[in-house]
Design a protein that fits this description.
157 residues; alpha/beta; Immunoglobulin-like; 2 domains; four-stranded mixed β-sheet; 38% strand; flat
């Protein structure tokens, strides 16, 4: 008996189980279709969240003044070279006016030690005037030796 024949013998129950297998596959497909529909209906909240007003800020926006409405999502993206110890940190995030919704890190390259893009999603909570202030420094050197600063004045209406 060849090796292929022995494998066919093992697989035989899967090929020759008749109508029972068809019913199992039918039920499996039905469950998958139902779960897809459920995800679509439950995902409606996600689609609504995606339609929120978003303002995007990058390093080139440093020093600017922006106006947003309450509920606006401010998406701030800055490059960070963590492999050299540098990182961006907020200098007192004004929690009266902003809620940190999400922070994510995305590699800019597949190379080891390459910079990454840090993105903060902040929600404007209350009307007023505030500032987004971040410093770029090595933790062991301290904020006093920051090599870069990011400041944006935000008027929330």
């Amino acid at each position: 008996m060849s090796r292929l024949d022995s494998w066919r013998g093992l697989a035989k129950p899967f090929f020759y189980c008749g109508g029972q297998a068809r019913r199992i596959i039918l039920v499996k497909n039905l469950l998958m279709a139902m779960s897809s529909l459920l995800l679509i209906f439950l995902g409606g909240g996600t689609l609504a969240a995606a339609s929120e007003v978003t303002t995007t800020l990058q390093e080139k926006d440093n020093g600017k003044e922006i106006q947003v409405k309450v509920g606006t999502i401010i998406e701030l993206s800055l490059k960070e070279l963590g492999s050299a110890g540098y990182k961006w940190e907020f200098d007192r995030l004004d929690e009266k006016h902003f809620e940190l919704v999400k922070r994510e890190t995305r590699p800019l390259s597949n190379l080891l030690g390459a910079p990454v893009l840090i993105t903060w999603r902040l929600k404007a909570k209350n009307p007023g005037e505030s500032q987004l202030a971040l410093d770029y420094f090595r933790s062991w050197e301290g904020r006093a030796k920051a090599v870069n600063h990011f400041r944006v004045k935000v008027n929330i209406q």
